[in-house]
Amino acid sequence: MPESSTPVPVVCALIERDGLVLLARRPPHKLLADKWEFPGGKVEPGEEPAAAIVREIGEELGCDIRIVRALPRFTHDYTRVVVEMIPFVCALVPSTPAPHPHEHTAIAWVEPGRLRDYDLAAADVPVVATYCRV
User: Fold this and answer.
1) Quick check: helix, strand or coil at residue 106?
2) By mean pLDDT, which of 2-11, 33-42, 49-58, 59-68 is the weakest?
3) Of 18, 19, 54, 134, which is most buried with the most CB atoms under 10 A?
4) 3 domain residue, yes or no
5) Measured between alpha carbons, how far is residue 11 from residues 1, 18, 113 in Å?
6) What band does 32 get if pLDDT is binned at 50, 70 and 90?
7) For residue 40, what are the domain limits?
8) Is residue 39 included in any domain, yes or no?
């Protein structure tokens, strides 16, 4: 039976540092196993997307971020679920610990022009296109 046709709101962070952007690799036991993605996750009911991305990055990477700007939202159909991607360009807060992959198998700091060289989750591909145009 198909899930609700209402898109699931999902936030993601393009964390910038020294001209590079952070990517995280999904664990092998999760959906989209071993794909690279911009870290983030589902927005909880009643939660603002901006609060969700700060919370998710704290949980997933153990660091604090600040939002620099929002990128355009869009929907992506994974067949099993439709997500509303809500991307944010972010920066690390100066006093924060370095990002650490608590829920991912690896992280990588990547030149923006090299993001397409990684095996990205499908919904992250349009984020790269938008980010590299801005």
Assistant:
1) strand
2) 2-11
3) 54
4) no
5) 26, 23, 22
6) confident
7) 8-133
8) yes
> Hey, which bits of the chain come out as E strands?
8-17, 20-25, 36-37, 40-42, 65-70, 74-77, 82-92, 106-110
Answer whether residue 1 is part of any domain: no
- Dihedral of the alpha carbons of 10, 16, 17, 18, in degrees to the nearest 10: 160
Q: Distance (Å, rounded) from C-alpha 68 to C-alpha 11? A: 14
Are the C-beta atoms of residues 89 and 71 closer than 8 Å to each other? yes
For residue 126, give Cα distances in angstroms to 28, 50, 59, 73, 87: 23, 20, 25, 10, 10
For residue 49, give the H/E element and its range: helix 49-61
The pLDDT confidence band at residue 106, using thresholds 50, 70 and 90, is very high
Q: What is the CATH number of the domain that holds 16?
A: 3.90.79.10
18 in any annotated domain: yes
Q: Which helix (H) or strand (E) holds 126?
A: helix 125-133
Q: Which residues of 38-60 are buried (b: 16+ CB within 10 A; e: fewer)?
A: bbbbebeeeeebeebbbbbbeeb
